[in-house]
Every structure is written in C-alpha cells, then in structure tokens.
Design brief:
mainly alpha; Glycerol uptake facilitator protein; 0% strand
Length: 287
C-alpha cells in the first residue's frame, strides 16, 4: 500500500526557506509582461496613496496629542497601503528592491531587474497622481474645518525642506523597514500572518519620520495641488504657513530623487544583499 502522505506543514517558513521564496518571487516579477506589470504598479501607487490619505486624516488637528502618539497613530493606519499591496496583489517599487536577491544569484538579468524597477516606478507614480487628482476634486482637504488640508500642506512642505543627503539617509532607513516587512510576509502561511508581519515595520518607519518615495508621490503632489489650485482656500485657512519651498522642482530634485536613491540602497543592500549573503551565496563546504 502507498505510504501515507506527510502531514501538511502549518508553521511559518524559516529564514532560509524565506530566502528561496524571495528568489522565486523575484524571478516571477522580472518575467512579468509589460501591461500586467504596469497595471499592478498603478494599483500599488493608488494603494500607498490610500494609506497616506488615512494617515493625513488621522494626524490632522492633533494638537492635543503628544508628538510620539500622533506619529504612532499615523504609522499604524498608513500600514493599510502595504497591506493592500501584499494581500490584494500589486507591484511596488520599494518592495521590488528584493528582486536583487535573484539578480545576485544570477537568476535574473540586470536588464530585467532595471526594466521591472523603471516600469513599476513609473506605474506607482501614475497611480499616486491619479489618486491625488481624485482626492483634490473631492475637496477632501476642506474636511474638519480645513484641518485635513492644513495637515496635507504641512506634510508636503516639510518633505521639501529636507537636505539632499538627509533625504538619502531617511530613504535608506525607510526601505530597510519596508523590505523587512515584505521579507517577513514570505514566512506567512495565512493572510492574517501577512497583515501582522506588515504592521510593525511600516508603523515604525512612518513614526520615525523616514522617507518613502512612493508615499511622497502622493503626499507632496497633494500639497502642490492645494497650494497652486486653491490659493484662496490656502489664504483663508493657512495664511501663516511657509510654503515657499513647496515647489515642483524641490519635490523632484530635493526629495523624490534622493529618497529614491536611499530607498534603493536600503532595500537592495541592507535587506536583499544581506540575506542573499547569509542564505543564498555559494558556500565552501570545506572547513
């Protein structure tokens, strides 16, 4: 008689198994066709924007709450973005830095890695900007007697005031945590596992004030839309707010560019390359 099937394994995957899973997922992502990849990237940009909207509303008019608690709450609700990306299925540039594990192991070509990053980055930007347009048209920034719009302007302006090297460093730390969140989901057996694995790293990066390139594709354009297309509202509700640094040029070259560089370093080196080195690199068996 045939042997009984071994019992199904319900325990979370161990780190070495997670590394193999990350490599396989990276290979699949790199081979995806353009239309599928770009569509999923648009969705991811919109999903992260939804998390940003949630965080903006929750932290608006939080003068009666301590700085730390306000940042904690903002980070907790922002986790919605990556939860949607991972569970619903979407392509996020920052998380896709983990494809480096398959590239370093020679299972993905450099041109395919860069193709994925470029297409997904642009798709994320499109998804975030489309969300900005819809949210601006909805006049959501006027909610709470203008508190939501004031917070949106404050967030956008502060991001455009960062120094170039400072933004790189904040981007490194951010995507170290984002890629760790994605990495942890590779151990998951259930949807609940994935959600719980995401919440703490994402809450940490937002609460700590680190910089996420795709989130900023929503945060800063939202502030720019309010500033440039609703000047009378700004004059009435944020007359004392310094918005001189909130410009398209500062967004693109003093925030998005350095933050993207930092995100690539944080995700590709601190997480992907580190775990490749530990678990996937060829090892000499002679001791």
């Amino acid at each position: 008689m045939p042997a009984d099937n071994p019992p199904a394994k319900f325990d979370a995957l161990l780190p070495e198994e997670m590394a193999r899973r990350a490599e396989q997922i990276g290979m699949k992502k790199a081979q995806m066709d353009f239309l599928t990849m770009f569509t999923l990237a648009i969705l991811a940009g919109a999903f992260i924007a939804l998390g940003a909207i949630f965080a903006t509303v929750v932290t608006a008019n939080s003068g009666g709450v301590s700085f730390g608690i306000s940042k904690l709450l903002g980070g907790l609700v922002f986790s919605l973005g990556l939860i949607l990306v991972v569970v619903a299925g979407a392509e996020l540039f920052t998380g896709n830095n983990l494809i480096v594990m398959a590239w370093v192991n020679h299972h993905v070509k450099l041109r395919d890695l860069l193709r994925n990053w470029i297409i997904v980055y642009l798709g994320n930007f499109v998804g975030a900007l489309l969300t900005v347009v819809i949210v601006y048209i909805s006049q959501q920034h006027t909610f709470g007697n203008g508190a939501v719009g004031q917070q949106a302007l404050s967030i956008a302006a502060s991001k455009c005031e960062l120094g170039f090297v400072q933004a790189i460093a904040l981007g490194i730390m951010c995507n170290g945590l984002v890629c760790l969140a994605v990495w942890l989901t590779y151990s998951a057996r259930t949807t609940t596992d994935k959600i719980l694995a995401i919440i703490f790293p994402i809450t940490a990066f937002v609460a700590a004030g680190f910089e996420h390139s795709v989130a900023n594709m929503y945060f800063v354009p939202m502030g720019l839309f309010i500033k440039n297309f609703d000047a009378s509202w700004v004059a009435a509700h944020a007359p004392d707010m310094d918005l001189s640094n909130l410009t398209v040029a500062n967004f693109l070259f003093n925030n998005l560019l350095p933050v993207t560089i930092g995100n690539i370093i944080g995700g590709s080196v601190l997480v992907a390359a580190a775990y490749w080195f530990v678990f996937l690199r060829p090892k000499n068996t002679i001791r």
